[in-house]
Amino acid sequence: MPSPEFDLKTRFEDEARLFMRGPDNDNRSKTNPEPAFAEPFFGYCPASDHYWETVKEAAGQDHWTPLEAFQKAFPGDGAGPGGLTVAVIVCPQTKATVADQKKASGFPAERWIRSRFFHDQVVSKLCSHLAGRLAARGVRAVVPDQVEGFGTFPHPRFQIASNWSHRHAAFAAGLGTFGLCDALITRVGKAHRLGSLVIESRLEPTPRPYEKPYEYCLFHSAGRCRKCVGRCPAGALSPAGHDKTLCGGFLDAAVPRIKELYPDLAGAYGCGLCQSAVPCGERIPGRARA
Ligand code: SF4
Ligand code: SF4
């Protein structure tokens, strides 16, 4: 008989897959409707893991620990980190989206913009749906970037920071390491969107098969590649890393052109060119796509 934790994890993942096979995972295209994202996969990290002691140094002092995120939603009940787990969901871009984006240069492909624009209605909704399903079983859970008080803000070292980073949660949960462009290199590369929850249950951790934050990036590990630098139309990438101000400027400037090209995507922004047609676009460099 499976342990209650195993059963909860299995149900959590089954419900996530079911949701992503349903009508909410939709790219909202009138001419070519199709799923916005491919089948998700998962990673888990206890809130008591030592990584969380360093997350404020890695992501900014205002980044919450899992316990802090949980206490924002459930203040004053004395929960400790020992009973909490961070669950991270990787929603890969579809093969069609990746193929289109690989062909794009200077401006992102429509499919990429579409999945970026409707991310909130798919991945964020998936996370709130899962939190609701857990609550129905009597298990409390919080989606940190949906908690009141969550925000993004200017940061002297990181240019822009927030109270919760799905990427740092995914790193902690064994799902991948960072690239020169800041995106997370996972077993399906960088073409994905992430969601995460803090769950009041001890779920078995996912092994973290790396030690360094940039271990999978060829530039950081071997001093070569820089392919993402050449893909960036904004000059936002260099050996010094990701200039979020230049990147954000390009994204803002793309908004009117996107509206002109695709009127139903008015208000959308996106780019992600550095996440495709590069050695880490669809896999961990040097390894088969898993
Ligand atoms: S394209 Fe190359 S340099 Fe850029 S993040 Fe990927 S592995 Fe690193
Ligand atoms: S998202 Fe676009 S603008 Fe931003 S760093 Fe990547 S390629 Fe450059």
List the helices and strands and how they pair.
Layout lengths: L3 H17 L20 E6 L4 H9 L6 H8 L11 E8 L2 H9 L6 H8 L1 H18 L4 E2 L9 E4 L3 E4 L3 H7 L4 E2 L5 E2 L6 E8 L18 H5 L4 H5 L5 E2 L2 E2 L1 H18 L29
Antiparallel strand pairs: 1-2, 2-8, 3-8, 4-5, 6-7, 9-10
Would you kindly provide a brief summary of this structure?
With 290 residues, this protein is α+β, with helices and mostly antiparallel strands.
Structural notes for this entry:
There is one protein chain. 36% of the residues lie in helices and 14% in strands. The protein has 290 residues and is α+β, with helices and mostly antiparallel strands. A four-stranded antiparallel beta sheet has the order 1-2-8-3, with helices on both faces. The protein starts with a helix and ends in a 29-residue tail after the last helix. The mean pLDDT is 93. Bound molecules: iron/sulfur cluster (2 copies). The site of one iron/sulfur cluster has 14 residues, from helix 8 and helix 9. One iron/sulfur cluster is lined by residues 181, 231-232, 234, 236-237, 242, 247, 250, 271-274.
